[in-house]
């Protein structure tokens, strides 16, 4: 049981780090010389603010907000796990930790789904862009946060 909790803790920590990297890195859509993230478009070494049409800016702000919320909820969930690990009675479940991590999962799902539906069309006409590592990390965090959240709800402290 201790090895399982340690493994979940390591994966949860990795999820928090990957969410952070995914949100701040400018590699959601990349080509051989250019990259675009949630915050900036980079051409070579020169970066400028993201330039999407005016009607798409609310969607971009929504993606940014939900990714930041996902980082916050994931970090709070990690702290709650540590607190519950040392203060909770034996035999109890990690309900609070699991619930907060599932809220993180929903935030990641909303952010990545909106980005997937709304923004790749601005890059594909040239045919040179593809999804970058930040986008892939966000989807990996989506999977990890769901699996770990469910495991927290099922596991009991022994």
Poorly predicted regions: none
> Can you count the beta strands?
5
Class by SSE composition: alpha+beta
**Helix coverage percent:** 55-70%
**Rg (C-alpha, Å):** 18 Å
Multimeric organization? single chain
Walk me through this protein's architecture:
The chain is built from 4 helices and 5 strands. The chain has helices at residues 2-24, 57-87, 95-118, 133-154, and strands at 29-30, 34-36, 40-43, 46-49, 130-131. It is elongated and about 55 Å long. A 5-stranded antiparallel β-sheet has the order 4-3-2-1-5. The chain is α+β, with helices and mostly antiparallel strands.
Which short descriptors sum up this protein?
single chain, 158 residues, alpha+beta, five-stranded antiparallel β-sheet, 4 helices, 5 strands, elongated
Quickly describe the structure.
The protein is α+β, with helices and mostly antiparallel strands and 158 residues long.
Task: Tell me the layout of helices and strands.
Layout: H1 2-24, E1 29-30, E2 34-36, E3 40-43, E4 46-49, H2 57-87, H3 95-118, E5 130-131, H4 133-154
Antiparallel strand pairs: 1-2, 1-5, 2-3, 3-4
